[in-house]
Design goal:
Number of domains of chain B: 2
Structural class of chain B: alpha/beta
Helix content of chain A: 25-40%
Strand content of chain B: 35-45%
Bound molecules: adenosine-5'-diphosphate, magnesium ion
CATH architecture of chain A: 3-Layer(aba) Sandwich
Distance between the termini of chain A: 33 Å
Distance between the termini of chain B: 41 Å
Shape of chain B: globular
Order of helices and strands of chain A: EEEHEEHEEHHHEHEHEEEHH
Shape of chain A: globular
CATH superfamily of chain A: P-loop containing nucleotide triphosphate hydrolases
Strand content of chain A: 25-35%
Oligomer: heterodimer
Order of helices and strands of chain B: HHHEEEEHHHEEEEEEEEEEEEEEEEEHHH
Helix content of chain B: 10-25%
CATH topology of chain A: Rossmann fold
CATH class of chain A: Alpha Beta
Number of helices of chain A: 9
Number of domains of chain A: 1
Structural class of chain A: alpha/beta
Amino acid sequence: MLEIKNLHATVDGKAILKGIDLTVNAGEIHAIMGPNGSGKSTLSYVLTGREGYTVTEGEVLFKGKNLLDMDPEERAGEGVFLAFQYPVEIPGVPNTTFLKEALNSVRRYRGEGELDAMQFVKLVREKTKMLHMSDDMLKRAVNVGFSGGEKKRNEALQMAVLEPSLAVLDETDSGLDIDALKTVADSVNLLRRPENALVLITHYQRLLDYIVPDHVHVLAGGRIQASGGKELAHELEARGYAEFSAGAAA
Amino acid sequence: MSDAPFTDHYGVLRDALPGHDLPWLSRLRASALESFSVSGLPTQRRESWKYTSLRPLEKVGFGVTGAPRACISIDRAPSLLPAASEHHRLVFVDGHHRADLSTLGNLPEGAELTTLREVLTNEPDWLEAHLGAVSGDPGGDWEQPLLALNTAMMMNGFVLRLAEGTVLHDPIEVVHLGGAGDRPLAYHPRNLVVLAPRSQVTLIEHYTHLGEQPYYANIGTEVSLAEGAVLHHYKLQADALDAFHTATVHAEVGPDALYDAFGMTTGARLSRNEIAVRLAGEGANCHLNGAYLVRGRQHCDNTTRIDHLVPNTACSEIFKGVVDDQARAVFQGKITVHRDAQHSKGHQLSKVLLLSDKAEIDAKPELEIYADDVVCSHGATAGDLDHDALFYLRSRGIPEPEARALLIEAFLAESVHNIAAQGICPALMSSIGHWLAGRPKEI
Ligand SMILES: Nc1ncnc2c1ncn2[C@@H]1O[C@H](COP(=O)(O)OP(=O)(O)O)[C@@H](O)[C@H]1O
Ligand SMILES: [Mg+2]
């Protein structure tokens, strides 16, 4: 589904990603772990097409198509979704308006019919219920005045509504208390399909108790330094990233 | 005669002007004309006109608006209010009152909505006492050439009067349709709003167009609010894109009275809203808000002056604009707190989105404070859309043009939703929507 080959990227002229290779197949869950500043969010932005993140070498194929050639909205249409580490506040745009616009844009892109107001409300009701979210959060402006946890839940809601085939969750666990973490994990697990895939970027092992990865990678110094099964996450939890950071510096 | 533009219109119009048999009015017009002949149209050498040039206006060669054209076939004038709502309406076409299109409805006792012409005929003495009472001494030194021009040539306009304690629940709408003539026309509507103590009303002015011809509307409005009176004054200027629109408003706000104004500009090739508010009674309050959306080569100027003359007066002023292409916007906001106006509050904010490299804003906030115990602030920002927000929306699949439109709409929505008369919000939001879709709102 996703093939990242020798990906190099710079931010402000500074090399951040220095040759990433990663293949994610349909049905798989990958966890990417690594110290602060190692380039995890940078990778997620390169995958979603944020401006300012320049690819200098390598390629990314998504379902066989060149992802790097596409606009952010096309990537979303193709089924790529990023749950932001720092969700953006958008004053003046009600959350429902945003969700409806997003869903119908994606449906248009995919050649599916748009949902009318009634159908949309019904769909969103189901999803908010699943995430234990209040209707109030739908009426408020996107992420404005939301607590850290509410913002993360709102990311999960968008994911649930848009039903992407590849979701990248960038530190979605940070800022969530244990109950909220379980709720979000449940909703993510509900979206699992054999034809979908998930990339979890996280600092901590904690989330991986609820969403169990098939593969764990350590990203340090702009490269994947090690890959393994879910037991690698436990090792990292116990030993820290020091040895990989040292390896990256060398 | 001088060679100032428009002065030749006076000779043509003189006998057709209402009240030409009233000596006081003839003197008033003559002295206004005299002063305009000397000054001519304001030029950029004047400090308050530094950023706006009226040259394009001189080039068009506007004619005078004579008798109303009989055969303009419209059966219904557009409205900013929901079709089913109760309201009172006056309609003007090219500056001429159209009784056939107006629907006054049942105005309550103590409320009067009529035309300048009618008051001139029936109550000239009342008009003599009120015309120029707020805008300044007509015989004196005309600092405002456009108002002088208006005074010399005014033909008609609306007069709104409320008796003490009269509270109107249904809004009053005045619709001005331009461009119906068979050649470019200039006209000079003159309006008066006089509210007696504790009276309240919502007044909506809608400027739009129906014909093909360019036109120049040079409007003068005087607002007088006695103790405890409340005027919600909303205006949508959606004139034709080859029209010119200059409007001068003078408001005097008495003790505990409120002047609550919101103006939205989407139309006209060149427009200027000049609003001067005198907070003249203790507890007087004004909200002077505005929004504008301009593109192409449009020029939109909002120039405001608020004078705090006595203690405990308050004003808040927020202007938000969206400027695209090579359009240019001007915001000049002056707040003066005079020496006696202790414990006054003044807040002013200008926020502009510049959507293209060639779009321009000249923002000139000015605070002059002569009292020592006051709370005042001002700020001005100009910039592009928030890139992070734009990326966030696009990352969810919303195409860039739609994402931009959402953010622009959100930027202005706040101002619109703060309007007290919620009835006109849908119409204003739909004007914004039409602008964003690149189409003028059809009427
Ligand atoms: N917008 C940016 N401007 C400048 N430097 C950035 C920007 N984003 C990230 N960086 C730098 O890139 C590196 C990787 O950051 P990031 O991808 O956020 O790491 P992580 O998510 O793994 O903590 C850091 O050194 C950070 O300072
Ligand atoms: Mg990060």
